[in-house]
Design brief:
elongated, homodimer, Nucleoside Triphosphate Pyrophosphohydrolase, alpha+beta, seven-stranded mixed beta sheet
């Protein structure tokens, strides 16, 4: 780690050839193009149950979520979803198909959610999870879900469980 | 525009609490989190034909593409696709459903492609287009398509044209 003695000094400007205001650092000239970030995740199925992970980190520590996280450069969306299941639940998964693409404009996130299944019946908490469990519909702790989009994905999945062909979902109507 | 007299002096480091190396500016301490960027676009249909735009800008100036471009902060993926059709083809479109999610890892892009139709039969080239046309399958200039993913979207769409329910596509097998 370098010792960082300064912070960027951003000003709002429209860079040459651009049509939007961006943060430009008055110290070093860097243009910080902020684009929406991609989260990928999956509903992981096994024996009619669904994987949930209890978060060991903020935000929403202690609440239940699907294995999901920020996509990194150099991987596909499917590989990113598989990596997240491996990191958060020590689970090898197979991606089955796309369930939903959500946008959360307030935090500039696009969430790409897949249906998947366990490649082998083995899982355990990774460093970002306190617990991992497989639950049936009647066992989902709806009051302890970490994020609204986890609820959306679970509820939308329930409407097409067992259906082979369906259009992927977007944000539910408010 | 500010006059920018310096450039960022990035070094590769793992910031505190992170698991990946990032570019950190030695001058100002800024951490440049590079995430994949999202392109949204659409196959816009009208009267059995498909909209193509001839690019007025680099890369691939003079070649044909679908109305598509980088998603901005503050919009949904569907709104971004609608804005691109408005900007590139002065076209008001209605999003029908998701066609495909492609990843281009080499350039760290995720492309979210919709099926759409013209809200009204009116279009013309925007500032980033030289020409806009509606074409039938036999009229597509396959040798003058700007990007491989445009070809993927057109070919995959052709396999499900008229089908109500289908799973969205991903990158075709190499």
């Amino acid at each position: 780690m370098a010792i960082q003695t300064q912070s960027p000094d951003f000003r709002r400007e429209i860079p040459d050839g651009d049509s939007h205001e961006r943060d430009v650092c008055a110290t070093c000239g860097f243009v910080n193009y902020v684009n929406p970030k991609i989260v990928t995740g999956s509903i992981v199925r096994h024996d009619g149950k669904i994987m949930l992970c209890r978060r060991a980190i903020e935000p929403r520590i202690g609440f239940w979520t699907l294995p999901a996280g920020f996509m990194e450069v150099g991987e596909t969306t499917e590989q990113a979803a598989m990596r997240e299941a491996r990191e958060e639940a020590n689970a090898a998964i197979v991606i089955d198909r796309l369930l939903a693409v959500y946008t959360i404009p307030r935090i500039a996130q696009v969430q790409i959610m897949y249906l998947a299944h366990l490649a082998e019946p083995s899982f355990s908490p990774g460093p970002e999870s306190l617990e991992v469990m497989m639950v049936g519909w009647d066992e989902i702790p709806w009051d302890e879900i970490a994020f609204p989009s986890v609820t959306w994905a679970l509820e939308q999945y329930r409407t097409i469980e067992g259906v082979a062909e369906f259009a992927p979902f977007s944000n539910p109507a408010p």
